[in-house]
Design goal:
The protein has one domain: Glutaredoxin, CATH 3.40.30.10. The protein is about 30% helix and about 20% strand. The protein has six helices and eight strands; from the N terminus they run αβββαβαβαβαββα. The protein has an eight-stranded mixed sheet with strand order 1-8-7-4-5-6-2-3, sandwiched between helices. The longest helix is centred in the N-terminal third of the chain and has 15 residues, at about 10-25.
């Protein structure tokens, strides 16, 4: 099997900017309620930052090993969680987002073992556990990085809970969600960012 080409963080960020221009992604303002006043900072140009409380649905998804995984269990860990919605045949923003997670694994240093990364496909009919395993290998996913699929109904429910559902996988937006611990609000990052910026957001979140 041909090994994937690893691109530096700065190079990926330049690729991300090009992808944004090509895809012409429209980033709409966050529509979720229960935003946390006073818990924001000025995010760098390129992505927006909002602190929001979400209530993920009680659904059971499927991991890339084929085992059933309750979303509540995947999210209920003592340490921080980073979450994205992707699909494996996406030619534009998803590879950039996955590469950001991949590079962040290295930049997290000793913290990588306490952070759970979760990528949930929005194309469950195509993204079988086997395809997710291939995708995970392509992006050097470590043991702390989960890839989940499931029924279309359950996947839609999860997207709706995070105000990420846009009616079609071709209209999805680049979104990353961070949470410090169970019961804490989520930091919603709208747009593409470098791994350096993502880890900086993580450091800001966990420094409180």
């Amino acid at each position: 099997m041909t090994e994937p080409t690893h691109v530096g963080d700065g190079q990926w960020f330049r690729v991300a900017l090009g992808v944004c221009a090509i895809a012409s992604v429209s980033l709409s303002p966050t529509k979720s309620v229960a935003q946390e006043p006073g818990h924001t900072h000025n995010a760098p140009a390129g992505y927006g930052r909002t602190v929001v409380r979400y209530e993920p649905p009680d659904v059971t998804l499927v991991g890339m090993d084929g085992a059933k995984t309750a979303l509540a269990s995947a999210l209920k860990q003592d340490g921080p969680v980073m979450l994205q919605f992707i699909f494996t045949t996406c030619p534009t923003i998803c590879p950039v987002m996955a590469s950001t997670f991949s590079a962040a694994q290295d930049k997290l240093g000793d913290d990588v073992g306490r952070v759970r990364l979760i990528s949930i496909t929005i194309d469950p009919e195509h993204d079988t556990p086997e395809r997710l395993r291939d995708y995970a290998r392509k992006f050097r996913a470590g043991p702390q990085w989960l890839f989940l699929t499931g029924s279309a109904e359950d996947i839609d429910a999860v997207q709706n809970a995070f105000d990420a559902y846009r009616g079609s996988k071709m209209r999805h937006e680049p979104l990353t969600f961070l949470r410090a611990a169970p019961g804490e609000p989520w930091v919603r990052l709208d747009g593409l960012m470098s791994a350096t910026q993502l880890v900086a957001e993580y450091r800001l979140l966990t420094a409180r």
